[in-house]
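Chapter summary example.
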Amino acid sequence: MPSRPRSKFRRHSCVLGAALCSLAGSAFAADVETPRAAPSDIVAPPSTPTPDETPTPPPAGGNPTLGGAGPVAPAPAPTDLNAQGTTPPPGDTGTPNGDSTTSPASPEIPLPETETPLPGGGTSGFVGDEDADPATSVILENADSFEQTTAGKWTGKGNVRVKYKKYTLNSDQVDVDLDAGEAVFTKNAILHAPNGETVTTGPEGSLRINLRKDTYTVIGATTSIAPQRLQVGVIMPILVYGGEINGRPGLIDARGSRFTTCDFLEPHYYFLAKQLYVIPGKRLVGKNVTLYRKNKKLFTIPWFVVPLDRRLSRQTLFPQLGQTPDEGYFAKFAIGYALSTTLPGILKIDAMQKKGLGLGFDQNYGDSDNLKRGTGLVSVYHLADQSTGQENYSGSLNHQQQIGTVLANLASQFQQNSYFAGGDQNRSLSSQLSLTRSVGNLNTAIRTSIDSSNYGLGGSLNSTAAFDQTFKPTATEQLHTLFTLTSFTNTYEGIDPTKRSELDTNIEYAQQNKAFDFQVLTSKFTQLQNTQVGSTFFGGLERLPEFRLATDATRMSMLKRFLPSTTRLDFSLGTFNEPTSETKTQRVSFGMDTGSTTAKINDRNTIDYGGAYVQRFYGDNTAEYLLTGRAEYKLKLGKTSSTGLSYNYLRPYGFTPFQFDFSGNNNTANFNFSLQDSKKFQLRIATGYDFNAAKETAFGPPTPWQSLSLQMIIQPDGHFQLRTSASYDQNHHRLLDLTNYFRIRGSQGFALDVNTRYSPDQHRFSAINAQLDLPFFRDPNEDAGWRLRAIGGYNGFSSTFDYQGLALTRSWHDWEGTLIYQNTTTGIRPGQTITFNFRLKAFPAVEPFATGQLGQALDTGLGQVY
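The structure predicted for these 866 residues follows.
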């Protein structure tokens, strides 16, 4: 198709859900009670009549509002824009100099207990009450003329600008009917949303807002539902035009409208729906939907459903075709349907040569904006596997519901004889239930889970139940309690059944004071049942209990005189039980850590240093202390280049009976050099020396030197990069490893990555991985053309390819078809696969390229392309 100019609604991208729907009710969130703007909450600027005009008096009966009560106040003088007006006496002109410039009364009904609106741009002031709030009132900021046509009806013409909540509306004309509670914007109406997006109606369209019902009607407008509003369901804006669009908070009804993702003035394709509902962030549901290609009817489907809150696993318009070793040739369909507006679903039909026919569905229910009624997703799938003769069942349930102040979440998954799980006989069930409640300073959660599985040789059953509660009586105190009951059962063939259960109790009290922090920790693991001989508790360390105190130099002025400001002190006392070492005794610990202090010698030389001391005493008459020291010298060689030396020391003295107190023994010095002032060439060198290893001769000659590592990057421009890494064993004087990463980036998305690893011992390349992304015959005006992608992993030790893959894509402006071939010789379910995907670009589906049959990555080192 020849290049065409982009449409105006593309340049003024607008959002139907984020703007219009929010326009009518975004301030009225489900959990926040916000006062609604009454239809009569109109604050208008004064209009100044000519000297020979007579100001229009207010209609009999008072203010021209829905209530009709109270007199209309004239405009305040420009020097007192927000003053409360008063009716001037007869003969008074209302101005200091006596000129006849008194403005007629304008409609103005402020909300109670709100603030005075500020003057609008282009006006000399408005008729404003002290209680008017621009956050909730409808404010007319500007108009070339604004007059009352009949009782309760006002018309503004020319350069109309209105503020409503956080939205700005411009048009050539606005008609306000106070009795009906409506404002109608006509002739080039434009709505500006707070996120910068717009809605335009054009010269013939109109935008009608019903302030009583928080609804709107758009006629003759082209609107756009932005991808960020629709979350992960689409990656391009959905354009809706034609017909009449009605909306309320959380729902858009666009009956008889067309929708497309093509942004050309004459779209390449569009859908015409007899009924179209959009619930932003949740789903798009169309009924009796017809697909047109260049105004030519292709086909009609009864339902078209697109979830907008999750990524589709496959396309809902076209089948996925292909071949795998397990399934043979296959065609997999996902067909959207809707039992009602709030009950959309996806029907799955899988026809597989070797497996047979698989049927399933994903059924949504409820409304996530009204959790009191409950919402969730039910998924069921069945396959009569003709290759194994087994009945394959799988399914899941996810349910969420608000019950009073308690939020309940239920998730359950099951499968039977799934060939993905392996084995001829397998069955598994997993369920989780959580109840959470947060009221005031008390948070409570109850969580339970049950997991059972059987893979033909026996089964296992695991269950947990937990009570978790946090109480904060003050801002500086917190009490946390956690009780967990765990049960585990094994019934494998040929082995005696095993049953174990345990109750874990954890209680923690924490308090923050001005001078120190105080904690009390209690942990107890109670074994309820254990039929396994020789086994011990599930749990770890028991605290029966432990008391802790902690402070730092910034909180105690006495410490500042002798220690660095980063110093921290810790003290603990308690009785501990460690089942793994069968040790139970008392423990007293004191620790002091000076943190890290930087001494700046000059602009180029700095020294960082610090240390720690820990002393512990145990109830079995043993004791130990730990000394830790660290220092680093850094010399700047340029803006970002540097070299430096560092030293680290850690050594325990004495004995500890607890395994959790064991520490290492470290005495090392390290050297590093970094040259990176230029992006075109960077070099890093690092090595180290271990003083403890220099004395170790039990396993042969000492090996104190750490490997010398080198990394070099050459990047003359943004198109080419070479990264080389090498490591050299200084103790045995041999090259250990040599890796190279070669990258090329070109125009139109061209990319080539090659990774190599050379083994000096074997004198061969142990691994070569490569990936290519080659676009060709591209049409940049329509973002169309061809694309070839290739991946490969070569194993130098076996002289074979671990994986190979090719993907050929033909894309048009809106559509895309991809033929994929992959061959894996290792890993899970190896073999050759062929897949064909045809999709609409705006609705992404999972593409099985560079992944195995189960979705696993073919290689974790595929560079920066995949």
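To summarize the output: Residues 540 and 653 are 25 Å apart (CA to CA).
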